[in-house]
Design a protein that fits this description.
19% strand, single chain, 2 domains, Alpha-Beta Plaits, 10 strands, Isopropylmalate Dehydrogenase, alpha+beta, six-stranded antiparallel sheet, elongated, two-stranded antiparallel sheet
């Protein structure tokens, strides 16, 4: 997460520089989610990696009344896909109680994307009129506010009956004729100067004392390649770890070349061969690279 989120943050900052007229801020996802729940009016567009976006979009929709209200657009350079944000709901399938609004909103997005803005306007305004009239499915029905609780089919029929009408309290929509989102063509950046600076060897070991594991791992060291750190769950436990740290049986052992020495892939193969001879159960390896002199890997917590 440190690497992927860091890259996402970096690219966001690079793109933000191209639009100085737009205010931009950065929030860690936990406090960001709290702010969306508490002050949704403070946000216009939220840019996130996929997992965070999946969570926050549901929070945002639920704040408006239900996850069944929001549509979703996935737009690429060559194709696009539109759907409800909530995914499938097999537990209520065939019961005529699902809110079809999410799919309708996805369809409105699709119509705008393919240039059928007049049709999109007609459907959206009919949907707004239906919501305004208090004709609601069970997920948004509220006694004293709603006028009628309906099922999936009945809600769709009410929207159809309202085609050609506009809401009087809610703001009617008007879509520009060029509503389609056109993405700029992707251009690969020039390659950075990539340098191999070490290797993490992940080991399965059922012991609990990192010092014992370090002694075992140090047997496979080379004169020019030394064990510099062991982490468990991302926390540095050797050298100078804390005995209070709860450790699992999954250990990351980091090897770095001695000063003045260079590391190559043959050295890594040699380490793995020695580990096999020492009966060390290696799970995987991750090569550590720097790019234009900047480390492309994270330190252990506590370093």
């Amino acid at each position: 997460m440190k690497q992927t989120d860091g890259l996402f943050h970096q690219v966001f900052n690079e793109i933000a520089l191209e639009y100085p007229e737009i205010k931009n801020e950065h929030w860690i996802v936990d406090i960001g989610a709290a702010k969306v729940a508490d002050s949704p009016e403070d946000f216009d567009v939220i840019v996130m990696a996929n997992l965070y976006g999946d969570i926050i979009s549901d929070i945002a929709a639920q704040i408006t009344g239900s996850v069944g209200l929001a549509g979703s657009a996935n737009i690429g350079e060559e194709c696009a896909m539109f759907e409800a944000i909530h995914g499938t709901a097999p537990d209520i399938g065939g019961k005529n109680i699902a809110n079809p609004s999410g799919l309708l909103q996805g369809a409105v997005m699709m119509l705008n994307h393919i240039g059928q803005t007049n049709t999109a306007e007609k459907i959206q305004n009919a949907w707004l009129k239906t919501i305004e009239d208090g004709i609601h499915t069970i997920d948004i029905y509220k006694e004293g506010v709603s006028s009628q609780q309906v099922g999936t089919k009945e809600f769709a029929q009410a929207v159809i009956a309202n085609l050609g009408q506009t809401p009087s309290i809610l703001k009617p929509v008007h879509y520009a004729s060029n509503s389609a989102l056109i993405l700029p063509a992707y251009q690969r950046k020039p390659s950075a100067n990539k340098k191999l600076e070490g290797v993490d060897i992940f080991v399965h070991w059922s012991g609990t004392n990192p010092n014992e594991l370090a002694e075992k791992i140090q047997r496979i060291e080379k004169e020019s390649l030394k064990l510099t750190m062991i982490t468990n769950r991302g926390i540095k436990v050797w050298p100078d770890g804390f005995k209070e740290t709860f450790c699992t049986d999954h250990w990351r052992c980091r090897f770095k070349p001695m000063e003045g020495s260079n590391l190559n892939h043959t050295d890594i193969i040699d380490l793995l061969h020695k580990a096999l001879q020492e009966n060390i159960d290696t799970i995987k390896t991750e090569n550590l690279y720097s790019f234009d002199g900047k480390a492309g890997y994270s330190l252990g917590q506590g370093q």
